[in-house]
Amino acid sequence: MLVSGFQSIAIFNKLSKDVLNYYILIKRDAMDLTLPIDEIDAGTMNRAKFRRVYLSGKKPVILKGFAKLYPAGEKWTFDYFNRLMGDHIVGVMDNSRKKNTAYTRPDLMMKFSEFLDIIRRDEETSYRIFGFNMLREFPVLRKDFPTPEIVRGILGNLTLTFFGGKNTTVRFHYDIDCSGVLMTQVTGRKRVILISPEYDNLLYKVPFASFSLVDPDKPDYDRFPGLKFVKGYDFTLQPGDALYMPNRYWHFNTYLEGGMAISYRVLASRAGDLYNGFMNTTIRLLFDKSMDALVGEKWMKRKRAIAMRNADEAINRLEAKGKRQKAKI
Ligand SMILES: O=C(O)CCC(=O)C(=O)O
How far is the CA of 273 from the centre of ligand 1 (A)? Predict the structure, then answer.
């Protein structure tokens, strides 16, 4: 049978697509963290474009020099915070204490000046501050970083700040309320590993919670083979850069030196994200915390087993799909 030129192009296209799909499904030796993230000069971004391309498109982006658009970009130094809030008592997380649930309470309290002294040293520390509502406690700071136009909305005034010292990490998680997050790294560089929610199971998501069993710093591929299918981003935010993380994006952050960030949130627009955000922060969290209090390590063991089973099932599905596609080629 004779095949016309157009038909052969169509057959060729179909075959290349199948080959491509097969290789997308194929297991690699390690996580592939080489996806390129959009980087845009913050001054050239406007609300319409941000909402169309990044919010609606659920696409991450780095806005270079975002903090410099606001007084905070110049004013917010550790010295400035020390002068203004040094005597304030802050809740501090200690990474050396293991946590089995989401949304945990600070491990210790200390004067902000003491905490700043620790994180500004060029030394590793396990101390960090997670989700300090600094602008509510010190409203005078609001004018230094007013709600950016691009994220103005229902959650527009809700800001959280984050502080950490050299090499402090923030465990692999997504934000439990399923909001989109614009995190501006005001001081210090921060490495971020960012991964789409489509990989939930392959990232060994812990049920009833929004964190993973995996430590992306030391990925154990024998224990967590699902990671070999995962693709994501790995980049460093420079002081002043902002990162937009779409709803439910996984992130693992490492402070490369003492630094601070502030985040603004954008309420989820999809019904599923809104529903999950509500359920996560209420019923699921309450259930998880109650089980943790009642049964402790046994409950964590159960959650670990479910996460492993979900990942195995996801791997089997992908391998079966890969085989079907290979057979078609
Ligand atoms: O970088 C940090 O300290 C934490 C930021 C974060 O994980 C978040 O905004 O969810």
Answer: 19
